[in-house]
Amino acid sequence: MAILALAAAAAGAWAALGPRGGVPSGVDPRRSYLVAPFDVLSPDPQLAWLREGAVSMLSLDLAQWRDLKVVDYERGLDLQRDLKLDGTRAIGLDDARRLARKAGVWTVVTGRVTGIGDSTQVVANMYDVASGKKVDSAMRSAPRSADPRPLFDALARDLLDLVGAPTVSLGLTQSTTNSVEAYRAYLDGVRALNGWQLARADSLFAAATDADSTFALAYYKRALTYGWWKSGDSTQLAVLRRARQYAGRLPARERGLLDAYAALALALYGDGTPTTDSVRSARFVDAQRKYAAIVARDSGDAEAWYGLGDAYYHHTTGNFNDSLSRDHWTRALAAFGRTLALDSSFHLAYSHRVGIYQQTAAPNGPLLLDGETVRTLVDPATRQAFAGARLSTVKQRAQQLAVREARAWAAADPVPQAFLALAQAYLPEHFDSAAAVLDSAVRRLGPRAAGTLPFEHAIVLAHLDPPAARTALRAALAAADSASLAAAGGGDRFPILIAAMQVAAMTGGLRDLDATERLAVAVQPSLNGASMPTAPILRWWGTIDRLAVGVPFASVRQTVDSGIAGLDRIPGDFGRGARVESYSAPYLAFAVTRDPKYAATVRRWVGASAKTLVEMDAMEALARGDSARARALAAQFPPPDSIRAAGGALNVLRWVLRAEVLAALGDTRRAVANYAVLDPTRFSDASAFDPGLALYARTFPARARLYEQLGQPDSAAAAYERFLAWWKDADPALQAQVREAQAGLARVRDARAGQPVGR
């Protein structure tokens, strides 16, 4: 429906309006529109929905003219929230003009809906944004019981008379749905989606498609909801197929967005058949091309800019030594920045920008941010240019940007995901700040509305104050509602609950561990995008945590072995990735049992990386009685002082096994030094499947015994006391270790007092 030929006729109509006060040079104000919420002047609850429904219907009608820029309904909701106008009963002309200016459009439509007898009367007024003068007005009425959408079709035609548009049938029912019930459910779903009420949005979009099984727009929005909630889930792919099946009835903009999103979903999740890296890359390029075409037509389309950024963000090789990955993250950063300039409450744009800033801020990471360009220290020229103080400066700037971006998100839209991003932006440098953010967020939102934040609070506290973490975890469990957590969605909740299981284990709380495991199963019975149940996975990792806190291996051997066998059966890239991520399980099993079959499993799972696991080789040599070989391998262990000075993440499992090798070789001082380097604020959090926190607590009685051998009773007493404070409420099954530590503490206290041991 091009109206370029009508520009001359339109020019005469708007030129007579006088000074345009702020309209950019050469811009036709009658070519850009925002529809503000209508006033509903009737007590009839059946008309109340037309306050927002009028915006959606008129916007969709106007948007069918490709040469008009029309602010879509969802963008309008975000603008209202930005200007603190959401929920306002009546939006006056001044506020409507503010909304339009923020959107960069120069014609605003306001209106009112009135119930008169058995009729519904709608008046629409068109205003010039710059001058505030009325440009046109139209009025239509229809029986109260009638579908109101033809009425708004007619109003749109009346308003477009100003630019000489030919009389055509715009047909909202043709481009959306024949069902008013479905349309109303769709509108409510859009409001829920924009408010991050993902479960409610999904339910409402499902109701819309139940009422009209051909409602393409509702299918598309439901697929988007799953992208933010349960990405890759089979339901998401199914509703996306349905959206494409009926895409022919969509307005041009929505059809273009759907086509681009379908291309991106194909690149991200595939079609269920094996593919190659080159095919996957070509699919991302297709999505990028389609989103780029949309923003070329309308540079103010925030949803399309986000899609373009997402298509670049995920189009990497996973190795940022290559220019493609770095360039794509640079382009993604720019596209997400444009998204947020248009819509400051676009959730995932914040999330991805924070993620990029965090990656480039990592103190020992290879990436850095040069302005808004992602670079890598693997490149010799970059390494030379960013050395010493300059490298520290750019790393600090990236961390500050991560915090700034997350704060902006929390201010624009105070949802749990925003506060979680803000807390994570402080990590791994500032655990205290992250804990303060989470504590404040839980208090502000309330423990039930805060989603997984109470559990994340406990996880962060575990790196600072384990007894406080135990208290926080128990409070989180007491307040947790599995239905609410399930409804909240989010790809982070499953790993967060698994990490919370480690907090329970770290403080000897096996019953808390079991309660967290049961909650995780209830919240997420199966993995997103797969039919795989989570109960066996959680049982497996709960067992590994139990092993880390010293339960007898015989009691968990069957679960450990069956878990290893199950992982070995998973085919393809998914299976390989799962085994690499889970290598700490057989590693810990080997550390406990010295059984070489578990060491062999580790080597098989990690491949070439096993060459660096010299502490495992040394322990195997000791198990064979070859102390000379073990001593030669131990000489290759990294010096604790150099690691402490270098900073970066620590792998608890490896340092503990090194300490045990050295202790077995009689090198007590080096063994103690290996324990002493452990700092919980530097523990690697690359995977939730790492029992490091649980194992860390038990290093204190181990190092206390070494201090006793060295004749250092004060240090031994301090280590015993810390362990006993952490395991104050340890499970009965772990009390033997508590009693042993109590006996050790009494022993060293007697030694300090000069009393005979065993007094």
Explain what you see.
By secondary structure, this protein is of the alpha/beta class. Among the domains are: 4-175, TolB, N-terminal domain (Rossmann fold); 182-250, Tetratricopeptide repeat domain (Serine Threonine Protein Phosphatase 5, Tetratricopeptide repeat, Alpha Horseshoe), CATH 1.25.40.10; 546-666, no CATH class. Helices cover 62% and strands 6% of the residues. It is built from 38 helices and eight strands. The strands form two sheets. Strands 1, 2, 3, 4, 5 and 6 form a six-stranded mixed beta sheet that branches. Strands 7-8 form a two-stranded antiparallel ribbon. β4 (107-116) and β5 form a beta hairpin. The radius of gyration is 31 Å and the shape is elongated. The termini are far apart.
